[in-house]
Design brief:
The complex is a heterodimer. Chain A has a single domain, classed as Up-down Bundle (Formate dehydrogenase/DMSO reductase fold), CATH 1.20.1630. Chain A has helices at about 5-20, 25-55, 70-90, 100-125, 150-180, 185-195, 200-235, 245-275, 280-315, 315-330, 330-345, 350-355, 355-385, 400-420, 430-435, and strands at about 440-445, 445-450. Chain A is globular. Helix content of chain A is about 70%, strand content about 5%. In chain A, strand 1 and strand 2 form a beta hairpin. Chain B is mostly helical. Chain B has two domains: about 1-50 and about 130-155, no CATH class; about 50-115, no CATH class. Chain B has four helices and three strands; from the N terminus they run E-H-E-H-H-E-H. The longest helix of chain B is centred in the middle third of the chain and has 28 residues, at about 90-115. The radius of gyration of chain B is 25 Å and the shape is rod-shaped. The two termini of chain B are about 25 Å apart. Classes of the chains: A mainly alpha, B mainly alpha. Chains A and B meet through helix 1, helix 5, helix 7 and helix 15 of A and strand 2, helix 2 and helix 3 of B.
Chain lengths: ~450, ~160
């Protein structure tokens, strides 16, 4: 067999392996999709019940008018934050280990921001009038008030959904052409339309690379702005505990923390389900572990600064809010601190643990549980104990809110597994590009791996 | 007319390109079709200047302007007087201008990229699915009029 034959076979084998997720679904896949569909249906039924009976079916009450829905909203926006951002930063910094991770991270962003965008609408009440937020000439004589952070959210989330979807599509373009050339029937027609006649000419690649770099540079400020705006939803109020200048960077750091952890969880799942052990290697988990460790340290610093200033200044109402939070919600606070700080910092300092798939799964899952709790602790205790002691109250989520949140989680997973069934879940051209550029070169008495780059 | 040759590895494809250049075809007439990007000049040379970024910039600026018109126009048409604060509030206006500006810049980038690539391709062009499996296609465009560009270029030297 000649070298040339080895090259061709190798490319075909890589295509086969990376496109294994597109094979006809197994019984297990159908069962999972059915289960997720049932949970989504339960969430929809709960939401319908809420629309028919009014907001009293939720646990929201004076003074806690933001509950599980806004917790879910902030959590999912945060989760969406990291996918595109990690992908963009790694793309711009030309980190070669990024390649097998990009697609899952970008898809995660699109689906989580889509889920996040539903929560403000669900939270609004009288959902059938949600279109009042859209600015268009109308007979009501009313236009949205852009001074409201709700409108900032709507604009930012719309921009981010469209931007991250286009970013995902941009990355998919060369891979769609590969799938087009390997399929027949309606699938071939669908991929042919989506690939838009891509041939991989030198000119197409040249323009594509410039566009990818520009898109990566453009999407980062949008991602940062989205979560900053979510933080401003809180910080521009005069609610004690929220009215803080550190909130936007603190939210952004928290968002990246939960996003990086979610990407790791997805990497582990994809690796196991689609047998991608050769592509998602311990090196990738090692590097993602380092990233998670750095972000966890940053989050710890930001949280420490927030609490330390409250404690040192001892402004009565600010301290009252924190005292109430730490006494009434002690278990939740501990889970949050362990999950976001203690566990990642202790475990991820060690290379052996970063390269252990089991450890990374536990750490990444715990981080996201802790981040959901963190969102809850920002919202509920603060609203429970605002400035006026005669209006202090409490909040417990109702079954309706819990079902809607579970439905959202199931909806996210369902969208992801559907995406993985129709589109390459690992970026084929990116992975294969590294293969063709990689070589071992002699250096002294040994041979070292080298990657060809040209400016 | 465009013709396509399929090669199994980059070395033989590069030799073919070098051969075509040696016999007088110009770089403009030769193109490579690959499923992974190769460094510039490894197979063919492409022109490095690109104009789609201007469309991204135009998109961004027009988006920011559209955002300003939307917020400032709304505030002017439906004024909400709050104390002695300005009708057109700077903070929300800046936020909406930024978001709409960035959105239009992103859309401008995508539209510009496709326009510059000439996609979606409406005409049938030479291609072979073997390219997706790692083969390298070298296409040669021969100008009409009965004489190939190479011969024409060769004769003029």
């Amino acid at each position: 067999m000649s070298d040339a034959e080895v090259t061709v076979k190798s490319a075909t084998r890589v295509n086969d392996e990376l496109l294994s997720s597109l094979r006809p679904p197994t019984l297990a896949w159908y069962l999972l999709a059915f289960f997720l569909g049932v949970v989504v249906a339960c969430g929809l039924a709960a939401f319908t019940w809420q629309m028919m009976n009014g907001m009293y079916v939720t646990g929201k009450n004076r003074p806690v008018m933001w509950g599980f829905y806004i917790t879910g909203f902030v959590f999912w926006v945060g989760l969406s934050h990291s996918g595109t951002m990690v992908s963009s930063i790694l793309r711009l910094s030309r980190a070669n280990w990024r390649r097998p991770i990009l697609r899952a991270a970008e898809a995660m962003t699109v689906f989580s921001i889509t889920v996040a965008g539903l929560f403000p609408l669900i939270h609004l009440g009288r959902n059938w009038t949600f279109f009042y937020m859209i600015p268009y000439p109308n007979q009501r004589g009313l236009w949205p008030n852009f001074r409201s952070p709700l409108l900032w959210d709507m604009t930012a989330i719309t921009a981010y959904i469209i931007g991250s979807s286009l970013f995902l599509y941009l990355g998919l373009l060369p891979d769609l052409a590969v799938v087009r050339d390997r399929t027949t029937g309606w699938r071939h027609k669908m991929y042919a339309v989506l690939a838009m006649g891509w041939r991989g000419s030198a000119h197409e690649w040249s323009v594509y690379h410039k566009a990818s770099t520009l898109m990566a540079a453009l999407i980062i400020p949008v991602a940062v702005s989205v979560h900053s705006i979510v933080a401003w939803d809180f910080a521009v109020t005069v609610v004690p505990g929220w009215h803080s200048t550190i909130f936007p960077p603190y939210f952004v750091i928290g968002a990246i923390l939960s996003g990086v952890a979610a990407v790791i969880t997805l990497m582990i799942t994809i690796r196991k389900v689609f047998h991608l052990e050769d592509y998602l290697t311990p090196l990738h988990f090692d590097n993602m572990g380092k990233l998670l460790l750095v972000i966890s340290l940053l989050w710890t610093y930001a949280y420490f600064v927030e609490v330390q200033i409250t404690w040192y200044a001892h402004e009565p109402i600010e301290w009252e809010v924190f005292s109430f939070l730490s006494s009434r919600y002690t278990p939740q606070l501990l889970i949050m601190l362990v999950g976001n700080s203690l566990l990642p910092i202790i475990f991820l300092c060690f290379k052996k643990l970063r390269r252990s798939i089991g450890v990374m799964l536990v750490v990444s899952l715990w981080v996201n549980v802790a981040m959901f709790i963190e969102r809850f602790l920002i919202i509920v205790p603060t609203l429970s104990h605002k400035n006026m002691p005669f209006a202090w109250g409490s909040y417990s989520p109702s079954l309706v809110e819990t079902l809607v949140n579970l439905g959202a989680l199931a909806g996210f997973v369902l969208l992801f597994i559907l995406f993985a069934k129709f589109f390459p879940i690992v970026a084929i051209s990116d992975v294969r590009e590294l293969d063709v550029r990689k070589a071992e070169v002699p250096m002294g008495r040994t041979r070292v791996p080298s990657i060809a780059e040209k400016e | 007319m465009e013709i396509l040759g399929i090669f199994r590895d980059i070395e033989s494809a590069a030799k073919a390109v070098a051969g075509l250049v040696r016999v007088g075809f110009t770089e403009d007439q030769i193109d490579s079709l690959t499923s992974v990007p190769y460094p510039e000049g490894a197979l063919v040379r492409t022109k490095q200047s690109s104009w789609f970024r201007w469309l991204a910039l135009t998109g961004g600026l027009s988006g920011a302007l559209a955002g300003f018109v939307l917020v400032a126009g709304t505030a002017s048409l439906y004024p909400v007087q709050t104390g002695d604060k300005p009708i057109i509030a700077i903070y929300p206006t800046a936020i909406i201008c930024f978001e709409v500006g960035m959105l239009f810049a992103i859309i401008g980038t995508m539209v510009g990229m496709f326009l510059e690539m000439g996609l979606p391709a409406l005409n049938k062009r030479v291609y072979d699915p073997a390219v997706a499996e790692g083969c390298i296609g070298i296409s040669l465009t021969i100008h009409g009029g009965g004489r190939c560009g190479a011969l024409h270029a060769g004769s003029s030297d």
